[in-house]
Amino acid sequence: MTRTRRPARTRRPARTLGALAAPRRRAGGGAACREVGVSTTIANTIILPVVILAAMAFVQVACVYLAHASALSAAQEGARIAALAEGDPMAAESAAHALLGRGIGVESGTVSVQRGVEVATATVRIVVATPIDIGEATIEVTQSRPVERLTS
After folding, report:
1. Residue 131: its H or E element
2. DSSP category for residue 127
3. 1, 17, 80, 134: least CB-packed within 10 angstroms?
4. Residues in a beta bridge with 141
5. Sign (positive or negative) of CA dihedral 101, 104, 109, 114
6. Do 73 and 109 touch, CB atoms closer than 8 A?
7. Which among 28, 15, 143, 128 is positioned nearest to 74, based on CA atoms?
8. Model confidence over 103-144: pLDDT tens digits?
9. pLDDT tens-digit map of 35-65
10. Closest Cα partner for 82 from 98, 100, 68, 95?
């Protein structure tokens, strides 16, 4: 019983992105092959700007979301400090400003803290720096906490 060997297979060349985007042209291509090349160029001319615009819009939304998260954490910190039993609204404002200053993409911001008898409220209003200059985005966040009371 003798085994017969199969002939070795030849490997196909790997297909690249260019090979997937445009079909191979045959020798003596004619008008049909030229149309494929032109339609691919037109498609790339239309699709590439759309993809770039979508990426820029994604970055825009991410910057606004990040600024909103910074404003929210600053308002929460201001309300938390103001709600302490010995809480001082000025100390709460400075702590919220310090936290807001560490935020990425925040151009300017104002912090307002009010401490009532039962509730402490912190309001943060910021202007967001956006990579695409389509106007200023203003975000306002308000957080409230009950004031701590010491009873004896």
Report:
1. none
2. E
3. 1
4. 124
5. negative
6. no
7. 143
8. 666 767 889 999 988 999 999 999 887 777 777 788 899 999
9. 556 677 777 888 888 899 899 889 888 888 8
10. 95
What is the pairing mode between strands 119-128 and 137-146?
antiparallel
Burial degree of 77 (CB within 10 A; 0-12, 13-18, 19+): buried
Average of per-residue pLDDT values in the chain: 79
Under 8 Å between Cβ of 78 and 122: yes
Please report how many Cα atoms fall inside a 13 Å half-sphere around the Cα of residue 9, on the Cβ side. 3
Do residues 77 and 95 touch, judged by C-beta distance below 8 A? yes
Q: Cβ atoms within 10 A of the Cβ of 29, count? A: 13
Please count the CA atoms within 13 angstroms of the CA of 120 that sit on its side-chain side: 26
Going by C-alpha positions, the residue among 32, 150, 37, 147 that lies closest to residue 92 is 147
Name the residue with tokens 């690249």.
Answer: 16
